[in-house]
Amino acid sequence: MARILVVDDEPDVQNALKRRLERAGHSVHCAGSTDVALTMLVAGGPAFEVIVTDMSMEQENSGVKILEAALLRDSFTAVIILTAYGNVRNAVTCMQMGAYDYVEKNIPDVDVFELITLKANRAAQQVRERRTGSGPAFRVGSAA
Amino acid sequence: MTEDYTGCVNALLSRARLHHETEAVINDTLTEALKFTSSLRSFVAGIDPATGLMEVIAAQGRDWSPREKDNRLTVHNATQSGITARAAITANTYVAQDVRTDPYYVSHFNDVLSEAALPILDAEGVVQAVLNVQSGTAAWYTPERVAKLQILANVIGTALVTQTFVQRERALGQIGLELAAATSREHLTRKVLDLVVSTLHCQACSLFLMNDSQTQLILHSARGSLQEQVGEAAYDVGEGLTGTVARTGRPIRLEDPRKDSRWLGRFTEMTPDAMGAFLAAPVYFRERVLGVLRVSRPRNTPSWFQARFTESDERILCATGAQLGSALETLNAFDARLKNERMAAWGELSARSVHMVGNKTFAIKGHVNEIKHHVRNLPDEWQQPLCQLTDSMEQSIYRLEDILTEFRDFLTATQLNKQRCSINDLLHEAAHECFLHHQSVQLREQYCDDAPLVLADPVRLKRAIGELLENAVSFMPRGGCVQLMTNIGSTQSIAEPEQPNSKLSVRAEIADTGAGVPAGIKDQIFQPFYSTRSRGMGLGLSIVKGVIEAHGGTIREIGKPGLGAVFEIVLPVTTLEETN
User: Backbone phi, then psi, for B129, in 5-degree steps?
Assistant: First the structure.
């Protein structure tokens, strides 16, 4: 079980992701905007292990801001970025900055919710291992 | 010469410069000819510059009836009889001092004993009409009388030349007005063709316009038998006389095009045997050739008559080509601006819509995922019908996402993630991904081993190639063959083949054995929303074009209609220095 933050400005998407990830046994919190998410990230309590955030919300690169704030709070946090198809350049930037992975939301013939859940499960496990010192110390090659 | 005569000629000459007086001047000159030579009758027969047939354009004196005029209308080619015809054929004055013994004389009036015919020349020295006078006295036309008539013939010549110039000037002015008022290419070209046909006295006129890729001239509109081949008849630039005009930007004027080595006779306004004089001029704007305007005259004119086009005709056609070019360019610029504005607005709108629709679709996908989860916990009799529903919903969502993908590909065609890659590999991979599903189609690959690497986005380029392959396969429902080929070329400009700074490029060809693409739609197929299939949005080829052009390359369809489509992609090879 991991503490997961879902950030998306679409309530339906928040609900759908929350339901699916909860079904996988995680404790899921939601933020409907970048500002709310940033506030939650700096609030007290344990850091989130996994953050699933949309890339473009108020701005084209809102996801980048969430990623920066999340890694600043806890560099072990795994951030999964949800992108619209074709926005690969932003996604590549995020990977270079230390995102765990990115998932395109509208891939035909793929149940993306299963894919996100799979990635969130793996990420949660890796974060736990790292925090307990059993996994690799640095998962990201370049955070430049 | 008497004072009376000189004063009269002076007055006629002054009026001959005024175009609105032409008819009156000719008739008055004929009357003066009767008066000063005491003739019975006088008339002027004009020569049709297209057909060489003569007809009486004015007549004075006794006994003229419509029937008499009709009798004199035609100079029969077979006999070339009549002294009027003699003057036209020889371009010399002919006097029959005694018509009863004259070998050429043809009788029309019983009271004639002598007759004189004087050629009237145009600005280029070609016979345009003949002045004819008749007398009831034999040997009436003395050198002195003929000299007087010669001066009167010159007066008529001046009047006719003035009339021709004014008509041509008006036609050019009219073309200018039509160009300014033109709202559509069709309206414009229709008017211009009509004016050219009437001004240049030609039976056929065709306008070929350059395609978007500046490689082919396609028949856009025509007067004459080629009308049926509009959109079909096409010449490569440099091919035949028409293609040569496009390549050189210079007019071609020939008395007999069949004797010219460049003549192909592929698309002619008349049967090759009937083909007479030919004149073609470029339609251009600044230095760029936009098309070719050509006119022709039939050969079946009287054998003595040269149905040629004159230098003046050439100037008129060139001026028309230039004016038409500038008007077409204005229309093109207007269209392009409209298209750009439309695309920008449409792009912004659809980018937003695609984002929002994508998000909603994503949410629905999540809900379906949840329903599927709950359905799995239901009793069996509920599971089956509900599973069918969720599967169907899922499939619909995927198709919706296909459409979104097509839209996004279109919107993001220019966003490239470039790296060095081999075009051969991309073609091969795309082909094998495509041909896993289409085994009825045979695949042939013929790659150039030393094709240099190109700087390209491999994902997008491969997808673009895949689209072309899917396209090829879909047009061969009963099977066929797809041939992939690469070679090394240079991206030299077709308009400037001698340009030395051509760069190295890789050329790929994707050819199929389907129905091919008709000449008229070779450019249209790359436009957004153009589709002959019910599947998809019709963005496929416009995306392919966008991707290729974003790579600095070109794509065009160069197949022969009916023999299969051939898509040619040319990508520039970027050297390492240029990359750095």
Answer: -165, 170
